[in-house]
Specification:
The protein is mostly helical and 312 residues long. The protein has 2 domains: 1-110 and 210-312, no CATH class; 112-208, no CATH class. It has 14 helices and 4 strands. It has helices spanning 9-12, 17-35, 46-68, 87-109, 114-132, 142-163, 166-169, 173-184, 205-208, 216-227, 231-239, 244-272, 277-281, 285-299, and strands at residues 72-75, 80-84, 190-193, 196-199. Strands 1-2 form a two-stranded antiparallel sheet. A two-stranded antiparallel sheet has the order 3-4. Strand 1 and strand 2 form a beta hairpin. Helix 4 packs across helix 5 and helix 12 crosses helix 14 (285-299). It is globular and about 55 Å long.
Length: 312
């Protein structure tokens, strides 16, 4: 098949919002194809079932990001706002995509065996349930009170399951205490290096995902600047009405990051569920090349899904 490299230019180097919408359409369509493929939905392990739910969440983020690019339109008798795109909102969305991609990789891909994966998964579940317990005082109905009590029992069972895990049993006392610390702190960001437990921060997931294109310190600081009400986010908001070129550059940079994370997630998902490679390879070759390109762009050719890039 003869491919014209020029037709890939708007996808590899998007210069317009329209180019980015076309890119996001590729990922949304692929995610939806996997979700609707009933042959890949039979899973016995709860962690695998929830991993597939993460795919659905990623699909909705991709679709919502694309819709955000349509901009805000509002009209009343005196004011007409037309297609205003807020880059700070896009940054917040991209940060959530980064964190979801990093979480998925940390639990399901970066772990070395099923025991490590189980501990990470259980810590993740426990952290979520522990934060929900903070709402106990707000619960009024019998149904919600019973749910909180059930979840508290579930948390206790999770702790027991972690401590009965062979990986946990093989840790020395110091590293077992590190696991307990994560339980107490409602955290799950850890990495096993042999029998050593290493605490991680969200920015460290750049490295655990194998991303070499972006600096961990810089990229997460960037997300924090725009995802929180920092002064930078405020004056950046003001700039978007006065400097269209700079605003577009910021939007395009955010979208390049998002597409890279979608490609990383796609690669990791296929690694966790190898049968889904069939759906990937049913995509037009052009789409396979684009998804591989952004994964390679962020992590290098060692993470290629298949040999589609070789055909370019």
């Amino acid at each position: 098949m003869n491919l014209n490299k020029d037709e890939f230019e708007p996808f590899f180097n998007p210069n317009t919002i329209s180019d980015c919408k076309d890119l996001l359409e590729i990922y949304t369509g692929f995610f939806l194809s996997i979700i609707t493929d009933q042959t890949s939905n039979e899973e016995k392990l709860i962690e695998n079932k929830e991993a597939k739910l993460v795919l659905q969440m990623m699909m909705t983020r991709c679709a919502n990001l694309k819709n955000t690019l349509d901009g805000l339109n509002f009209k009343n008798k005196n004011i007409h706002l037309r297609e205003i795109i807020d880059p700070t909102i896009i940054s917040s969305l991209v940060r959530s995509i980064y964190e979801m991609t990093g979480m998925f990789n940390l639990i399901f891909i970066n772990t070395k065996d099923s025991n490590e994966q189980k501990i990470l998964y259980l810590l993740w579940v426990h952290a979520g349930l522990a934060y929900r317990q903070r709402f106990t005082s707000l619960m009024r109905s019998k149904e919600n009170t019973e749910k909180i009590e059930t979840e508290l029992k579930q948390m206790q069972d999770i702790v027991l399951e972690i401590k009965n895990n062979e990986k946990y049993k093989n840790l020395n006392e110091r590293n077992q205490e590190k696991i307990q610390n994560r339980i107490d702190k409602k955290e799950y960001l850890i990495e096993f290096i042999g029998n050593e437990v290493s605490f991680l921060r969200w920015k460290d997931l750049v490295n655990t995902m194998g991303i070499t294109k972006y600096n961990a310190e810089q990229i997460y600081t960037y997300f924090s600047l725009y995802s929180h009400p920092s002064n930078v986010s405020v004056f950046q908001f003001a700039t978007m009405f006065n400097d269209k070129k700079q605003t577009n550059e910021l939007i395009l940079f955010n979208l390049q990051l998002a597409v890279s994370f979608f490609s990383i997630f796609t690669t990791d998902y296929i690694r966790l569920f190898p049968k889904s490679i069939k759906i990937f390879e049913e995509l037009p070759l052009k789409n396979q090349i684009i998804i591989n390109f952004y994964n390679s762009f962020a992590r290098g050719r060692g993470f290629d899904i298949n040999d589609a890039l070789e055909k370019l």
